[in-house]
Design brief:
about 110 residues; mainly alpha
């Protein structure tokens, strides 16, 4: 959760191999995977820039819905799904820039 990037998780192999079924879930749909990743990034990764402003927008909408003690409307759900698609692209670009900068720093 520190970076929001995908990192090798060798320490999880035993847990995955020997866990009971109810402890593991599978996401077969690419869209659901993207939404799940962006939901987690929005909760756990902090920073500045356009992608983080979108995460804050999503959280503000969710907070409004929670405060009003209601469910999301279809339009709100569609808006959040669309914003998360945007955050996914922006965050992947952000990570690519960080990797490029780290590679430049290593080469100096």
């Amino acid at each position: 959760w520190r970076t929001g990037d995908f990192e090798p998780g060798i320490e999880l192999v035993d847990e995955l191999l020997f866990a009971r079924e109810q402890e593991i879930f599978r996401i077969d749909d690419e869209e659901e995977f993207l939404q799940s990743v962006e939901r987690a990034r929005g909760r756990h990764v902090k920073g500045e820039g356009p992608v983080f402003a979108l995460y804050e927008t999503i959280e503000a909408l969710a907070e409004t819905v929670r405060n009003e003690r209601r469910h999301f409307t279809d339009k709100e759900e569609a808006l959040i799904r669309g914003l998360r698609r945007q955050t996914h692209v922006l965050f992947e670009e952000h990570l690519a820039q960080q990797r490029a900068a780290a590679g430049t720093e290593e080469g100096t």
